[in-house]
Specification:
Order of helices and strands: EHHEEEEEEEEHEEEEEEEEHEHHE
Shape: elongated
Radius of gyration: 27 Å
Number of helices: 6
Number of strands: 19
Distance between the termini: 49 Å
């Protein structure tokens, strides 16, 4: 696998990355100088293709528009358009860009010691498909997709409907949806947090570090989204929210999640509800006749969690167990319909479901 050197006239001066530059210049005084470290000039930061305030916001975990910084971008250097790729990898010692078409690898410059990397491709004028090669402190390298090279998915029309309060199918976009973008499988996340300064997806896949997978704020409506490649079904996650007010930080479960962890855990989980195959075609075809206005109706109202427990360990019955035991009992007692007390996600079983924390995760 070949490696090409970045042709980057904006890279740090000879000697390597920012850490090297700082260590080779900071704190040096002439012989006999009485100057204290506090009075020494701060070494200049490396030149980059973006303002340092943007880099500091990414590294500090308070940038609300990471797609404007990270990933591939076309920038102008002098009178020439070039492609730049930026990545934030705080736990990796080295990051390279691998061209998917050619297989060439380009080692990125570390322009911030906190893990902000940049590579400029002076011979390119348009973005290209690539992956990142990450090398950790042990020298172990692995290849991964860059989440920020994929396009945002929520349309302007959907944002308009949400802003009006008329987006009645918002559950089809918000939450965590397993999907495929540009041939890459992953999970599309979206949430509404209008008072947030920054929202990130956190979980075991990024060490619960709120700086690693920040989401993009879409307009002023407070909708945030991102795509994370290759997350498997069952992944635990939360939204890490930094408020615009008083520096408040909190990790929240997903109100649109399709799967909620059982108490005392409070995480959400990625789940693919599209894989379920319905087999009730005959029942649906007969439903109109069975529920005609001239048919008798006797409704049995029930709270599934307290109706019956497992005799062995007093545990809750599963939905599969209830489907047989409850239906058989109701039919034996002469009822025609079952009315369920809330089955949506709620934190306290004793509430019978009236403290809803997630409408889509039974």
């Amino acid at each position: 696998m070949s490696t090409e050197t970045v042709e980057n006239d904006l890279s740090p001066t000879a000697g390597g990355d920012n850490e090297h530059n700082e260590s080779s210049t900071a704190g040096h005084t002439e012989a006999g100088s009485t100057g204290s470290p506090e009075t020494q000039p701060v070494p200049p930061r490396p030149k980059t293709t973006i303002d340092w305030s943007q880099i500091d916001a990414i590294v500090g975990g308070y940038h609300g528009s990471p797609y404007d910084v990270l990933g591939p971008h076309v920038v102008k250097t002098g009178d020439k358009d070039v492609v730049v790729v930026r990545a934030f990898r705080p736990l990796d010692e080295q990051v390279s860009v691998k061209d998917i078409d050619t297989g060439k690898e380009t080692i990125m410059n570390r322009v911030h010691p906190g893990g902000f990397f940049e590579a400029v491709f002076s011979r390119r004028k348009t973005p290209f498909a690539y992956r990142l090669i990450l090398t950790d402190s042990d020298g172990t390298a692995h290849e991964t997709e860059d989440p920020y090279r994929f396009p945002l998915q929520i349309t302007d029309y959907e944002l308009h409907l949400h802003g009006e309060g008329n987006y009645y199918q918002c559950y089809e976009r918000f939450g965590a949806h397993m999907t495929t973008i540009e041939g890459v499988e992953g999970v599309q996340f979206a949430v509404w947090a209008p008072n947030a300064l920054r929202v990130s997806v956190v979980g075991p896949f990024n060490g619960w570090d709120s700086r690693v997978n920040p989401m993009q704020r879409r307009t002023d409506g407070g909708v945030w989204e991102t795509f994370i490649p290759h997350l498997p079904e069952g992944t635990y996650y939360k939204f890490a929210i930094k408020s615009r007010f008083m520096g408040y930080d909190v990790d929240k479960a997903d109100p649109y999640a399709f799967y909620a962890s059982q108490r005392p855990a409070t995480d959400s989980r990625v789940w693919n509800i599209e894989k379920y195959v319905w087999s009730d075609q005959q029942w649906m075809e007969e439903r109109a006749a069975r529920q005609a206005f001239d048919k008798p109706m006797a409704i049995y109202e029930v709270h599934l969690g307290s109706w019956k427990r497992s005799p062995e360990d007093n545990a809750f019955l599963s939905y599969q167990e209830l489907a047989h035991q409850l239906v058989d009992y109701v039919k034996e007692m002469g009822y025609t319909h079952i009315e369920l007390l809330p089955i949506t996600e709620h934190p306290f079983d004793g509430s019978w479901g009236y403290q809803v924390t997630g409408y889509y995760a039974p």
